[in-house]
């Protein structure tokens, strides 16, 4: 039985619409969050970039301006085009003011914005605010969280990320991201390797291409180009020579691609806050060879279908991928076990039920931040 219905405002980041094909793991997480909360009977109002799904009943103030690059060849995920924030931030403030003016009709704000404004407004909204920390500590968010008398409650997507933020004085309860096992289905496997995600320098696709060439297997690539100069210089020259770029794919097609692969290569060159692609690949039964950095090891857990190697070690990655891809003896059993482990640990419905509990606690004087100060208390699951 689900918890009582609530009215929840979900605030998305300012950069990409919340729709398929997903711009990245953060956008996919917000999309799933809205969908599952609605399925559980809640009224969810999405504040997001125009062009997002799920905004049919949102007030006009919740439609934020889209990012438009005058020159698409300069587009990156780490900068905004000139003048965008001068339009986007006032629009976000209009949305926050709508929440303040309608506080008696809203139960909670579920904040995923990477901009500090929702934190600076939290104490005057008149509505509990729960903020999920999806990134390493961002200076402006840290400053806003520490300066506000009541910035709300914080969740972190991994214990690694929670520890990073705690070092900056921001306590958070750990609530890992989730996957929908009804959409990420068990696949048959195959011979080729797969890499999927945002195509930006810190995701290390160029090293996955090198590792695949060492194995002699084809690498199939899916994802949105989030840094066009990087793609043009480091990826495009190698396409067609054992590496095929399929573009950004909708979730059903992406799940079929991943589930039909021998092994997924996951190559972050930064301290990955979570690593949703690890859980997604495992849910299809596809084994994972990955760089061990940030929260990747937490997502992998003790799964035998995941091999972790030092970050940047291309030869070790290729060796791990080939071992996993060539292990045909327990092929079907291993895939089923990988899926079972992923679904058990990262169930979307289970996470939604836990989130409902957090929303209830946030409406009281219960201090989630203080909870994380006690040893062993910063793991929700």
TrEMBL record:
<dbReference type="Pfam" id="PF00534">
    <property type="entry name" value="Glycos_transf_1"/>
</dbReference>
<protein>
    <submittedName>
        <fullName>Glycosyltransferase</fullName>
    </submittedName>
</protein>
<dbReference type="GO" id="GO:1901137">
    <property type="term" value="P:carbohydrate derivative biosynthetic process"/>
</dbReference>
<feature type="domain" description="Glycosyl transferase family 1">
    <location>
        <begin position="193"/>
        <end position="339"/>
    </location>
</feature>
<dbReference type="Pfam" id="PF13439">
    <property type="entry name" value="Glyco_transf_4"/>
</dbReference>
<dbReference type="InterPro" id="IPR028098">
    <property type="entry name" value="Glyco_trans_4-like_N"/>
</dbReference>
<keyword id="KW-0328">Glycosyltransferase</keyword>
<dbReference type="GO" id="GO:0016757">
    <property type="term" value="F:glycosyltransferase activity"/>
</dbReference>
<dbReference type="InterPro" id="IPR001296">
    <property type="entry name" value="Glyco_trans_1"/>
</dbReference>
<dbReference type="InterPro" id="IPR050194">
    <property type="entry name" value="Glycosyltransferase_grp1"/>
</dbReference>
<feature type="domain" description="Glycosyltransferase subfamily 4-like N-terminal">
    <location>
        <begin position="24"/>
        <end position="180"/>
    </location>
</feature>
<keyword id="KW-0808">Transferase</keyword>
